[in-house]
Amino acid sequence: MTEIEDLRSLVEVVESGSFNRAATRLGVSKSIVSRRIARLEADLGIRLLRRTTRGVSPTEAGLEFKARSERILAELEEAREAIAQQENGVAGRLRLSVPLSFGVHHMGPVVADLARQHPRLEMDISYSDRIVDLIGEGFDAAVRIGRLRDSSLVARRIAPIRTILVASPDYLDRRGRPKTPGDLVAHDCLIYTGRAGADWHFRAGSRRISVRPGGRMRADSGDAIVQWALEGLGIAEVPTFIVAHHIDSGRLVPLLTDYALPEHGLYVVRPPGAYVPRKVRVLIDTLLAHFSEPSWDSCMMKSLSVSRKG
After folding, report:
1. The pLDDT of residue 1
2. pTM metric for this prediction
3. Which end of the chain is less congested by CB atoms within 10 angstroms, N or C?
């Protein structure tokens, strides 16, 4: 008899184009996925997948059966949610993508709250700065930072994300403190490569200033950039959410606080559609409860206050 996990395996194999990737997404071995597909094909008496050296693709029957399987799985999920809601809970699996640095620094309490409040909710969380394909890779939602590109995804803004220029006291003792954005060209800058555009942008009133930072240290990890700044290797432009505690402790010093840096946003994005799974709704509510007034921006408020007094 066809089982629900057989249907889920077929959907994952067709969407990922690979038994290996499907097995990874399902959290089982490749051999288990192969057995499930073989059982489906035996039950139906028809081939659902074409297997070649280049990968796996669905037959016409496979595409039709996948579409019907997705409807069955969606209805099952809705039924589980409806029953769970009667008992004030959420059931099922939440597959979530979060940015690496933000996830490591700030998602722990969010996940813990969800786990405590909803003991029947399974969570599968991917920590990566890669922009995942929510629909193609089977994610329920993603936490994203920055300006969102146009897409069919539905986005909910959770909190502002601000950046700040910092350096260690040791670096400033050796190299001096920049007083204007133009002074940065004479400094070693620590350059984050995980975003589009190489310039650092500032605003002073209605005036906008762009500077192309120079330096020999580059990385696609915000945490690596912060560690280099702590070691006195240069000036970094970083989000306040990963440096607030270093600023509060005095290990890093805010710079050019009279000049505004671009503000971004923290968002939850989900696949399109009027129906919002309850597991995604509780995720959004929990994120809002934790981050609607982000504590990490207190360092910026303090630095602005000191700057104005000075």
Report:
1. 52
2. 0.69
3. N
